[in-house]
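INSTRUCTION: Work out how this chain folds

Token vocabulary: learned, describes local backbone geometry

RECORD BEGINS BELOW THIS LINE
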Amino acid sequence: MTNISKFTLNANHDFLEINLKNPSSEQNKPLSFSCEYLRIFAPSECQKAHSGKQATPNKIPQVFHKKNVQLSQIEPLGKHGHRFIFNDGFNDIYSTDHLIKLSETFDANWSLYINGLSSTNSREESINFKAVT
């Protein structure tokens, strides 16, 4: 069984590396994700894209304007996985299996997502706020 042994979040809080521990494997290659990718392909968003009235033809989540999203917090939830909390107020529970699948399908997922963008549904923030000092 593969378990997460370590999370490493970069200084900007926009890139996450996950170290896995698998007793039956000699090699434990870390998984690396942008927080944008994790936010777009969150388990609940993937579920919406694959089922019901909100299903999309290419099975890609319809989540936009997340280029600058950051990961604020990670909470361990035992056997269920980890709750990832993003600075846009969204949170979801990510299992180890979901994270491994996201890593394995990154190229196909990201390509379909990028090809489905438009001028109104882009990666860029819809409103860019600047701090006033």
Helices lie at 35-40, 43-50, 96-104, 106-115.
